[in-house]
């Protein structure tokens, strides 16, 4: 006996007030509905209806079954409706905030691959290097590097940020490679200037298991990580680059990883979003997709 089917027919008879009307609603014959109810009564060992030629009323046991079964059937209907509507809910826009360099190198590929699976999803990507307030900017999902957001937000660590000392093969061919940290100051190096404060960022290096910060003289300084990476790739100087930008160039041989023992862990990359129980299906799907896919995009120390 298909219990879900016969319970559904039972509640249909109660709602319609007759076997014949319930049969019409279910697209069955009255005989088929009557047979199903009879099977249910035999299975339970009780009568569910008082039947006469003029009336159909529930027995006490029938009232009890209807009382207990109705909420479950409503939940089942709601679950089916939500799954049915999830296709429509997938269509729409997801607003994302991310730092400029990370957005270009990591978020754009995530968007591209997610849209290949869900063409009805559109994205609005906001790239800015300061922390973005999700509520004020109406952002669905944010990304940031360093430390997790210290607000009432859900955050997931999706990768590690490593700082790698790199140079182009052309630079090494002309100037050689430093054999230790002390030799860095003898080389031509780039520097990163904080766009908000204008201050130069010291190089962060791992030396004998401890993190040290060094002010390395720069032959050229930049206020965007991408501009600094372009300068290093051109052979202008040695630079300290974040791993998600350096790794593809190291793989392709366009950069060399110098002093690999000094690679410094610079915190993590976090995806963050608001604590919401009623989240659009497309946003939930993207969060789950990014949580699964993004860690594989980080190789670790690089080089």
TrEMBL record:
CDD domains: PBP2_CrgA_like. Signal peptide: none annotated. Keywords: DNA-binding, Transcription, Transcription regulation. InterPro entries: LysR-type_TF_proteobact-type, LysR_HTH_N, LysR_subst-bd, WH-like_DNA-bd_sf, WH_DNA-bd_sf. PROSITE patterns: HTH_LYSR. Residues 13-59 form the HTH lysR-type domain. One of its GO terms (molecular function) is DNA binding. PANTHER family: HTH-TYPE TRANSCRIPTIONAL ACTIVATOR TTDR-RELATED, HTH-TYPE TRANSCRIPTIONAL REGULATOR. Belongs to the LysR transcriptional regulatory family. This is Transcriptional regulator, LysR family. The lineage of its organism: Bacteria, Pseudomonadati, Pseudomonadota, Betaproteobacteria, Burkholderiales.
């Amino acid at each position: 006996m298909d219990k879900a089917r016969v319970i559904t027919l039972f509640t249909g008879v109660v709602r319609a007030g007759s076997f014949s009307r319930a049969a019409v609603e279910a697209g069955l014959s009255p005989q088929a509905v009557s047979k199903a109810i009879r099977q249910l009564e035999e299975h339970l060992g009780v009568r569910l209806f008082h039947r006469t030629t003029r009336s159909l009323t529930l027995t006490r046991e029938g009232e009890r079954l209807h009382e207990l079964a109705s909420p479950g059937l409503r939940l089942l209907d709601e679950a089916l409706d939500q799954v049915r509507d999830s296709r429509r809910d997938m269509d729409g826009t997801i607003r994302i905030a991310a730092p400029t360099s990370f957005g270009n190198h990591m978020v754009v590929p995530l968007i591209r691959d997610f849209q290949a699976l869900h063409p009805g999803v559109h994205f609005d990507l906001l790239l800015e290097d300061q922390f973005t307030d999700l509520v004020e900017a109406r952002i669905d999902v944010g990304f940031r590097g360093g430390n997790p957001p210290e607000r009432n937000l859900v955050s997931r660590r999706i990768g590690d940020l490593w700082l790698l000392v790199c140079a182009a093969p052309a630079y090494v061919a002309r100037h050689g490679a430093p054999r230790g940290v002390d030799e860095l100051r003898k080389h031509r190096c780039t520097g990163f200037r904080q766009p908000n404060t204008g201050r130069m960022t010291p190089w962060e290096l791992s030396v004998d298991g401890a993190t040290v910060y060094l002010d390395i003289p720069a032959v050229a300084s930049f206020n965007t990580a991408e501009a600094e990476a372009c300068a290093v790739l051109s052979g202008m100087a040695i630079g300290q680059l974040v791993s998600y930008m350096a790794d593809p160039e190291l793989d392709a041989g366009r950069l060399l990883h110098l002093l690999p023992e000094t690679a410094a862990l610079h915190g993590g990359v976090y995806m963050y979003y608001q604590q919401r129980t009623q989240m659009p299906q497309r946003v939930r799907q993207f969060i789950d997709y990014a949580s699964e896919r993004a860690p594989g995009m980080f190789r670790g120390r690089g080089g």
